[in-house]
Design a protein that fits this description.
With about 475 residues, the protein is an alpha/beta fold. The chain folds into three domains: about 5-125, Fumarate Reductase Iron-sulfur Protein, Chain B, domain 2, CATH 1.10.1060; about 135-290 and about 450-470, no CATH class; about 290-450, Rossmann fold. The chain has 23 helices and 14 strands. It has helices at about 5-10, 15, 60-65, 70-80, 90-95, 105, 115-125, 135-145, 160-165, 185, 190-205, 220-225, 225-240, 250-265, 280-285, 315-325, 330-360, 385, 390-405, 415-425, 435-445, 455-460, 465-470, and strands at about 25-30, 40, 45-50, 55, 175-180, 205-210, 245-250, 275, 290-295, 305, 365, 410, 435, 445-450. The strands form five sheets. The chain has a four-stranded parallel beta sheet with strand order 6-5-7-8, with helices on both faces. Strands 11-10-12-13 form a four-stranded parallel beta sheet, with helices on both faces. Helix 20 (about 415-425) links the parallel strand 12 (about 410) and strand 13 (about 435). Helix 4 (about 70-80) crosses helix 7 (about 115-125). The chain starts with a helix and ends in a 5-residue tail after the last helix.
């Protein structure tokens, strides 16, 4: 049987009671008050001192009240479990404006699974009979009618592929590998879908676009509409059940299918296929010296920075951390292993960016808040749909940080981050180009294949999975 939100909350009870209200969760670099940075910068949203510990919870920054910071939400969860507080519209309106970026979890020395708790709290709130907010009800209605939250027609899901001359990959019966495109890249940021599929084609990958693909369910797991999310999960598990490997260009879809599906599936179930993000494949091929990149006069000298999507960054990092903790017999010793694994994971997309710097001539400048301490783009957790003004102000704060390091191009590897950062860049006149890393490679024709990859290269386990394997004794 599938789990309910209250059942998940009960499972997380020990975590909830670990919170000591220390407030470390409100900061990036909570343990590094003397961290050197780039100093004070006056941006479009505010003046920020990028040095030492910096406020980094988007909801806390936006609303200010204690309940909107993570520590406040842990008290709410505790009060719900103890029966001292009942779900209501007022409780809903406090727990929903949270982007579930995971910054709080990353800063927590007690290793509390804050994102799981907040999402389970939202699910339990809906189960109690409290209605969703109107904007969330709309996307829930659309996905039930159209299998995507944008209301796009099923026949148009792969229109981008037909227009780009990639129609042969739709329902390619000979393929063991699928490209799961996701709703945002299918119906909105088609640049990301086209760039990824063309990159696969250039590399010689025999892949398929599965016509029965539906929304991964990410927005609905985030907002607590678990029944809707699980219905979508079942459709995708059936549609992709014969695949050996599924690739992603969307951070949210990758996180949802890899991390969330197993949590909400029955205990005796497991994913029928392997998963990995496209940037893992490109990084591996760079490291194996099977590909490099061509010089480009148009890009030479351009300052490029990189935004870590929360879903491929912190959410995977924290999941790795929890996995190591669960297996650990000596956490004091294994804390070094956790730190090493997380650092290696965050280096994966940076391998590509440093190779682009070496081969193409870009200048790769990092923002102040990066990796585990990265600032969120503002799009996730149902916030873009439910609270768009807050969402875009958060994205503008991130664009301020990119401006502070002189970025000409702000890159990321998630179409949802791409959308929010792009919109904030335009709305607040940040003056940058926003694009995906793989999009840059494809659109500027940078790929230089030294050795044609073979099928086994595409079916090789993901970098993430290889990192999680226990070392042989």
């Amino acid at each position: 049987m599938a789990k309910t939100g209250m059942e998940r909350l009960e499972e997380l009870k020990k975590d909830i009671y670990k919170c000591i209200h220390c407030k470390a969760c409100r900061f990036a670099y909570s343990g590094e008050p003397d961290r050197e940075g780039i100093g004070e910068y006056a941006g479009k949203q505010s003046t920020v001192l990028y040095e030492g510990m910096v406020d980094a919870c988007p909801a806390g920054i936006e609303y200010g009240w204690e309940a909107f910071w993570n520590a406040g939400k842990m008290w709410i969860a505790r009060s719900i479990l103890s029966g001292d507080l009942e779900f209501s519209d007022e409780v809903r309106d406090v727990i929903l404006p949270c982007i579930t970026c995971g910054q709080c979890s990353a800063q927590c020395d007690n290793k509390i699974r804050t994102v799981d708790i907040i999402e389970s709290l939202r699910a339990a709130c809906i189960e109690s009979g409290v209605p969703m907010i109107e904007k969330h009800e709309l996307v829930d209605k659309l996905v039930k009618e159209r299998n995507n939250p944008y209301g796009g027609a099923a026949a148009d899901r792969f229109k981008w592929a037909k227009d780009a001359g990639l129609e042969k990959f739709i329902n390619n019966k000979d393929a063991k590998i699928a490209y799961y495109v996701g709703c945002t890249a299918s119906y909105r940021q088609i640049e990301v879908a086209v760039a990824t599929a063309k990159l696969f084609e250039l590399l010689g990958m025999n892949f398929t676009l599965v016509a029965d693909e539906v929304c991964c369910g990410s927005p609905f797991f985030r907002i607590g509409a678990v029944d809707t999310a699980q219905g979508l999960m079942r459709k995708n598990l059936e549609a992709f059940k014969n695949m050996e490997m599924v690739y992603f260009s969307c951070a949210g879809c990758y996180r949802t299918i890899t991390i969330d599906y197993p949590k909400w599936m029955a205990e005796d179930e497991e994913l029928p296929f392997k998963t990995q993000h496209a940037f893992e494949l490109v990084t591996r091929l760079v490291q194996q010296e099977k590909i490099k990149f061509k010089p480009n006069k148009e890009l030479k000298g351009k300052v490029v920075t990189y935004h870590d999507p929360c879903h491929t960054g912190r959410h995977f990092a924290v999941d790795m951390e929890q996995d190591i903790i669960a297996k650990s017999k000596n956490l004091l010793m294994d804390s070094r292993k956790i730190k090493k694994a997380i650092e290696e994971w965050y280096e994966v997309p940076r391998v590509i960016l440093r190779k682009l710097e070496e081969d193409v001539g870009i200048k790769f400048n990092e923002m102040y808040r990066i990796k585990l301490d990265s600032m969120c783009c503002g799009a996730g957790g149902g916030v873009r749909a439910g609270y768009p003004e807050f969402s875009l102000r958060t994205a503008s704060l991130r664009c301020d940080e990119a401006n502070a390091v002189g970025a000409d191009i702000l890159t990321t590897e998630c179409p949802f981050c791409w959308r929010n950062l792009y919109d904030a860049n335009e709305m607040y006149n940040h003056g940058m180009v926003v694009m995906g890393v793989l999009q840059m490679i494809t659109e500027y024709n940078l790929l230089d294949i030294l050795e044609k990859p073979k099928e086994e290269d595409f079916l090789t386990p993901s970098i993430r999975e290889a990192m999680e394997e226990e070392p042989k004794k």
